[in-house]
Hints:
- This protein is α/β, with parallel strands linked by helices and about 350 residues long.
- The chain has a single domain, classed as TIM Barrel.
- The protein contains 13 helices and 13 strands.
- It has helices at about 20-30, 50-70, 75-80, 95-105, 130-140, 160-175, 190-200, 210-215, 215-220, 235-250, 265-270, 285-295, 300-310, and strands spanning about 5, 10-15, 35-40, 80-90, 105-110, 145, 180-185, 205, 255, 320-330, 335, 340-345, 350-355.
- The strands form 3 sheets. The chain has an 8-stranded parallel beta sheet. A 3-stranded antiparallel beta sheet has the order 1-10-13, covered by helices on one side. Strands 11-12 form a two-stranded antiparallel sheet.
- β2, α1 (about 20-30) and β3 (about 35-40) form a beta-alpha-beta unit.
- α1 packs across α2 and α4 packs parallel to α5 (about 130-140).
- The longest helix is centred in the N-terminal third of the chain and has 22 residues, at about 50-70.
- It is globular, with a radius of gyration of 19 Å.
Amino acid sequence: MKSITIIKPDDWHLHLRDGDLLEAVIFSSSHHFQRALVMPNLSPPITTVKMAEEYKNRICVANRSVLERIRPENINAFASFNPYMTLYLNSEMSSQELKRVSESPDVLAVKFYPAGATTNSTFGVSEFESYYRVFEQMEKLDIVLCVHGESINPEIDVFDREARFIEESFDPMTRRFPNLRVVFEHISTADAVNFVNDQNENVVASVTPQHLAYNRNNLLAGKLRPHKYCAPLLKKEADRSSLVHAVTADSNEKFFLGTDSAPHLIGEKESSCGCAGCFSAPYALAKYAEVFFAEGKLENLENFASLNGAKFYGLPINEEKLKLVQRNNIPKDFFMTEKGEKIVSFVHGETLDWQIVN
Ligand code: NCD
Ligand code: ZN
């Protein structure tokens, strides 16, 4: 049986939600990841360091209370899960708040959402350029900017929105602020891979398991699979293969793990007007391992999953390890909230090749 032991990974793009849903999904992350960067798109969004610290506290409390219930004998192994926080960029973001971000040990980045591009992003911004004042200050204070890079022009085809954003917004911005550290989140196209590779070391990208493991046929051909529906949409095979090539490359330092795990209740996914977001946290590492193995590059999984992101964020490398074995296993049909509401993962209906042992 093939197996691999790597430094325990971190998830640099994670939606944990709040309340019952947070309780239902937190162990899927704290079980496998040592740290995570938690996205701020709650309703209302997290816009201040104070709100972020309170949210962080709710996450840690939820993790502990779930562990007391399901792993009472082994709480300390998973209670050390450390969520780092982000603030939602908005027109009210003041210089004082940015100063607080730069001084906060808990808030690692500010997140830009184009208005209306995805779940809870109506609060976002329509003009990237209108934030140049903020970017200038972030560059000076060395605050990381995380970017959801999709055009929101309704005339642009949804499959072209990432490429269009690069051309119209991202490229001019990185020229103007070469020292701003930027994460191009959940990249989905060969255009994004090329863009990131062409930029200096301050521009990097996170990559999800769904964009590495699937193309748009897996979402749309023959039958519609709502649990594989996310923003940005899955793209063509050529895009997927460019992403795989980039993350598994021997010299890869610019691409790192960010699941973009984005749980929604089953009714919001299996719906006549369904939400974007893949619940990937519980099986993300299994899918990443599958992709790296298929490419003959399993030995590079650790760089992508456990080293590159920590280095970019200037954090120490984890001490713990995690072991994955290659064996067929059936993922759980669903996860559940206290009230009995279901959450279905993105691998529903599949047999997985890899499994975590811990
Ligand atoms: C995310 C969500 O549901 O919060 N959805 C998604 O499809 N990725 C929002 C986001 O990251 O775009
Ligand atoms: Zn996201």
